[in-house]
Write a structure and sequence with these properties.
The complex is a heterodimer of chains A (110) and B (112). Chain A is mainly beta and 110 residues long. Chain A has no helices and 11 strands. In chain A, the strands form 2 sheets. In chain A, strands 2, 4, 5, 9, 10 and 11 form a 6-stranded mixed beta sheet that branches. Chain B is globular. Classes of the chains: A mainly beta (110), B mainly beta (112).
């Protein structure tokens, strides 16, 4: 079955710097790749997603890139702010339930 | 718009007691429904998913079970809770299997 690896597990950045989280997947048939943000004690929230027919997608300060050949996708957050501090999960799917990475704890230091 | 509800929000149960968590979705028909468990500081473990009434797929063998008695209702149950069942239980829904998936507010279960 699908396996999703996510790195790094923890990431600390200074406010205003960029943060990059990377995920790799194993099943080349996967075609949907969402990212979720989970604040402490809250539910995961879908923040951005990308499908296999697109290489990059942006929404204000966040962007996701997909490299199907290498089977990896990344989340980019620019101009980080303290409210970006959370756990971020990537996932992959080919029409079956989402397979999640283990998460990245992002800390933005003011 | 679509809304997903879960209750109770928090629950403290002794070991060996039964469990029933409920999830309902409003504003959509025939959703795919999912139950996840998240241990403290850990990732999301898929427990069950359902593509229709009475159709349940189990991802992890354990002392939990799930049922879908109505189109927009998903129930997670246990006959006898274990200490290891403690965690944050999240229900989620999607329109189709590979489309956007949205989580409910969760139930925080502590087994004592």
């Amino acid at each position: 079955g699908e396996n999703v690896e996510q790195h790094p597990s923890t990431l600390s950045v200074q406010e205003g710097d960029s943060a990059v989280i990377k995920c790799t997947y194993s099943d080349s048939a996967s075609n949907y790749f969402p990212w979720y943000k989970q604040e402490l004690g809250k539910r995961p929230q879908l923040i951005i997603d990308i499908r296999s027919n697109v290489g990059e997608k942006k929404d204000q300060r966040i962007a996701v890139t997909l490299n199907k050949t290498a089977k990896h996708f990344s989340l980019h957050i620019t101009e980080t702010q303290p409210e970006d501090s959370a756990v971020y999960f990537c996932a992959a799917s080919k029409g079956t339930p989402l397979v999640f990475g283990k998460g990245t704890r992002l800390s933005v230091i003011a | 718009s679509q809304t997903i509800h879960q209750w109770p929000a928090t629950l403290v149960q002794p070991v060996g007691s039964p469990l029933s968590l409920e999830c309902t979705v409003e504003g959509t028909s025939n959703p795919n429904l999912y139950w996840y468990r998240q241990a403290a500081g850990r990732g999301l473990q898929l427990l069950f998913y359902s593509v229709g009434i009475g159709q349940i797929s189990s991802e992890v063998p354990q002392n939990l079970s799930a049922s879908r008695p109505q189109d927009r209702q998903f129930i997670l149950s246990s006959k006898k809770l274990l200490l290891s069942d403690s965690g944050f239980y999240l229900c989620a829904w999607s329109v189709r299997a590979f489309y956007e998936q949205y989580f409910g507010p969760g139930t925080r279960l502590t087994v004592t």
